[in-house]
Amino acid sequence: MYRAPEPAGGPPLGRVRVLPLIRADGARQMALDSWMLAAAASGEVTLRCYEFARSCVSLGRFQRTDGLDRRAADHGCLEVVRRPTGGRAVLHDGTLTYAIALPGAHPWAQGPVRAVAGRLAGAVLAALQRVGVPPPDDGPAGGRAAADCFAVAAPYEATWDGAKLMGAAQVRADGGVLQHGAIRLQAPVHHGRTNSGLGGLWPDEPLAPSTTVSDAVGRPIDAPTLARAILESFEEHGAELRRRALEPDEERAWQARVARFRDPGWTWAR
Length: 270
Fold this sequence. Notes:
CATH topology: BirA Bifunctional Protein, domain 2
Low-confidence stretches: 1-7, 191-195
Number of domains: 1
Structural class: alpha/beta
Shape: globular
CATH superfamily: Bira Bifunctional Protein, Domain 2
Number of strands: 13
Number of helices: 7
């Protein structure tokens, strides 16, 4: 069963700055997404795709850590960061993440959170179809209360064969909107414990049903391939892509934000 987010639509997205695909640790990735949100206040739309350099669990900004066992993180075998966006925890292992930041006044940023999330996720869904994921249908997708983002699907998140394929989380702040979402390319190899998900951080959390883009397509799909498809899909939705890496002053502003996402007071104080 495949459930799709609401299709992207409305006015063209317009000029979009595209940052290079990078592999980096979780704190640096969250810091760069945070910088993108701040840049959106100046009127810039920024889009990028990225991978985590090692297995990492990202917690939602307001997610509580009740029942969490920190030993996997404290022993250095699993990175844990807290996102600037809401939602539940995600195990980034075999995933590609997209991130897009828009000014709050942008036409694509108008409406309720779910409408904006569906609009942006719809463009990513079109990219999945470009690499061979079958067309969507209207079948239901169940869910349950859980710490794991991939254990339950929101209306704008895609599922395949009863399991979640990609997620999305959003924040509105400082005059901008940031949305990012993890897409499972391959099955996670770092579960920590054989019977628990999220790298063993929640011992009582069973492994969520999981599927991957490669499962749905029937062949391996790597990160650069899907990242190209995402850019092409946003172009089809009216984005005028401008590929431009960070300038030196922007690089410094990004790096200045990293300390916040490495701070245990930020990560664990919930």
